[in-house]
């Protein structure tokens, strides 16, 4: 099937009219499910960072990071509208569905990008704002416009954009980065390939129909499964590192270790799945568990942090 370039054909009368899109349509452009993960991990980075930030400024920081993530999603949907229209998973997104015009999505994304970066810089600090600007650029330009359609390593390299939020949250408090913030970054960065390739396995036809070189389509299912296992093992290992750097306790490390063992077990189940399996149940289960896994790891980090603070406060009272 031939994919039509959205820059040529999606809304040829774009300069003559505006859509009748509502707030819900524009909100959908922000990729709210992805944004929720960004907000949560950024919040974790902000809370776990040493030092203190005014609660109001902290709220402003999280809002700016959320808006920046949404801006990235809008720019991604603008550029990918041509392939989104063909893929079953994305055909009902606002642009291919005709609810929002491409130039509206582009203007919306650019406006939110500028707003989020400038406000974060003015209200919090410019180092964090610079990281946010780089993250938006990396996702919208490096990943979406270049890597996604040119290399099967697209999600490996491009996954960095989704791994920056906790580092940005950390920088909002400290004005810089540290070993611990890099570890938080690496947890998400190394988690991304196994997570996304699980999706790519049961959406191979979709990606094949639009010519996006996802790893299963290029290297084959067997190679992808082997690489997923390597990334799952590496993720499980790096996720327990905070208990050795002093960011978290041994209790956190044990809990993260159990979560990681299950994550690796899911990957082994995918590896044992016959190539060409129509149902792809192990891949679907791994994709679902991978989302839970990341939320659980960062939730455990936060719970461990707050528990330590409570113990410290109780000790001070006693």
From TrEMBL:
Enzyme nomenclature, EC number: 2.5.1.141
Superkingdom of origin: Bacteria
Organism listed in the record: Rhizobium deserti
Broadest EC class assigned to this enzyme: transferase
Protein family: Belongs to the UbiA prenyltransferase family. Protoheme IX farnesyltransferase subfamily.
Function: Converts heme B (protoheme IX) to heme O by substitution of the vinyl group on carbon 2 of heme B porphyrin ring with a hydroxyethyl farnesyl side group.
Keyword tRNA processing belongs to the record: no
Location in the cell: Cell membrane
Catalytic reaction equation(s): heme b + (2E,6E)-farnesyl diphosphate + H2O = Fe(II)-heme o + diphosphate
Example GO biological process: heme O biosynthetic process
Further comment found in the protein's record: Carbon 2 of the heme B porphyrin ring is defined according to the Fischer nomenclature.
GO cellular component, one term: plasma membrane
Cited HAMAP family: CyoE_CtaB
Membrane-traversing stretches: 34-53, 59-79, 100-120, 126-147, 154-176, 182-202, 228-244, 250-270, 291-311
One Gene Ontology molecular-function label: protoheme IX farnesyltransferase activity
Pathway(s) of this molecule: Porphyrin-containing compound metabolism; heme O biosynthesis; heme O from protoheme: step 1/1
Membrane topology: Multi-pass membrane protein
Official protein name in the record: Protoheme IX farnesyltransferase
UniProt keywords, alphabetically: Cell membrane, Heme biosynthesis, Membrane, Transferase, Transmembrane, Transmembrane helix
Gene this protein is translated from: ctaB
Main location: membrane
């Amino acid at each position: 099937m031939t994919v039509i370039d959205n820059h040529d054909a999606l809304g040829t009368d774009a300069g003559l009219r505006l859509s009748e899109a509502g707030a819900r349509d524009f909100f959908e452009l922000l990729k709210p499910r992805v944004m929720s993960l960004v907000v949560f991990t950024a919040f974790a980075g902000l809370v776990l960072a040493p030092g203190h930030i005014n609660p109001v400024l902290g709220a402003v920081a999280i809002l700016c990071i959320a808006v920046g993530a949404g801006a990235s999603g809008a720019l991604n949907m603008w550029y990918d509208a041509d392939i989104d229209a063909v893929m079953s998973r994305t055909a009902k997104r606002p642009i291919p569905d005709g609810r929002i015009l491409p130039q509206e999505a582009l203007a919306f994304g650019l406006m939110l990008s500028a707003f989020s970066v400038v406000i974060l810089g003015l209200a919090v600090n410019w180092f964090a704002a610079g990281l946010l600007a780089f993250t938006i650029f990396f996702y919208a330009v490096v990943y979406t416009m270049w890597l996604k359609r040119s290399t099967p390593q697209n999600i490996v390299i491009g996954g960095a954009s989704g791994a920056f939020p906790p580092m940005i949250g950390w920088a909002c408090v400290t004005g810089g980065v540290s070993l611990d913030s890099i570890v938080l970054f690496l947890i998400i960065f190394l988690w991304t390939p196994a997570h996304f390739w699980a999706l790519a396995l049961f959406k191979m036809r979709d990606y094949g129909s639009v010519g996006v070189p996802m790893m299963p389509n290029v290297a084959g299912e067997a190679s992808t499964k082997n690489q997923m296992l390597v990334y799952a093992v590496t993720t499980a290992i790096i996720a327990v590192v905070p208990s050795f750097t002093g960011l978290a306790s041994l209790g956190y490390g044990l809990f993260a270790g159990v979560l990681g063992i299950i994550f690796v077990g899911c990957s082994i189940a995918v590896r044992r799945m016959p190539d060409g399996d129509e149902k792809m149940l192990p891949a679907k289960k791994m994709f679902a568990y991978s989302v839970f896994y990341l939320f659980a790891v960062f939730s455990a980090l936060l719970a461990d942090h707050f528990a330590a603070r409570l113990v410290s406060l109780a000790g001070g009272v006693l």
